[in-house]
Amino acid sequence: MEKLDQYKDLVLGYVVENGLNILIAIVVYLIGSQVIKAVVNGTRKVMDKRDFDPTLSSWLRTLISISLKAMLIISVLGMVGIEMTSFIAVLGAAGLAIGLALQGTLSNFAGGIMVLLFKPYKVGDFIDGAGYMGTVKEIQIFNTILNTPDNKVIIIPNGNLATGSLTNFSKEATRRVDWTVGIAYGNDYSKAKEVISKMLEEDARVLKDPAYFVALGALADSSVNITVRAWVNAADYWGVFFDFNERVYKEFEGHGLDFPFPQMDVHVNQVK
Questions:
Q1: What is the model's pLDDT at position 29?
Q2: What fold characterizes domain 2-101?
Q3: CB-based burial of residue 116 (10 Å sphere; 0-12 exposed, 13-18 middle, 19+ buried)?
Q4: For residue 11, is pLDDT > 70?
């Protein structure tokens, strides 16, 4: 009982001595809590207007709220006479130790923020990054999940995607399809160009603007190579690519155009 009475006297004395400071601290805490709430709500409205990713918006609002509340609590405790210098030093040292231990994780975390903020790709895009190609299924804070064309699920750390080279095949509405068609030496190049141009004209998926391009690309060792380029909507890319290859194979034969095989001429000189 004596110890309990001593604690009561100690607390009562502290309250009497610091009553005004405690009252001010309570008022500051209540006002600060309302200000933090208003800041978080204002941040949410700004992010909604600017069409921020919902995951990033939620995470940033939580981070802002926690940071401001921690600063408010430290300020309030300092106002009532509690020494916070040592606590802040310990907290800083702990933060540094945790940061060093989680370097890779924090790198992926920062990469996720960069991806969600600058949006180099979005869910549904087909990308090539970190050595993998696939359709973006989900963007998380630490990882991006891809579905490959053969239906594999690939989980890629965001740090690799944020700091490495990345190709987004879905970013633009149109794409250019490129082919190299080889014909044998002695074949009629003008006829081959006419057949190719007709196929492109008849395909409604091939855009008229920009116009398709057909030209003699190279006189190779075993073939005359024709360069073909055509613009299509991004969604039609692979359909046009494969259909054109099939039509070339079927129609060249009917027009007397041959596909060359690798060949080498050997000249033998008789030495006397």
A1: 87
A2: Helix Hairpins (1.10.287)
A3: buried
A4: no
User: Tokens 């907290």 — which residue?
Assistant: 91
Specify the DSSP class assigned to residue 155.
E
Per-domain residue ranges of the chain: 2-101, 121-168, 174-254
Mean pLDDT of the chain: 84
CATH fold of 121-168 reads: SH3 type barrels. (2.30.30)
- Could you tell me the pTM of the whole model? 0.64
Can you tell me the distance from the alpha carbon of 113 to that of 108, in angstroms, rounded to the nearest whole number?
A: 9
Q: What are residue 215's DSSP bridge partners? A: 227
**Structure token digits, residue 52:** 């921020």
DSSP letter assigned to residue 130: T
| Burial class, 7, CB count within 10 angstroms (exposed 0-12 / middle 13-18 / buried 19+) | exposed
CA atoms within 13 A on the CB side of 158: 25
The residue type found at 119 is: K
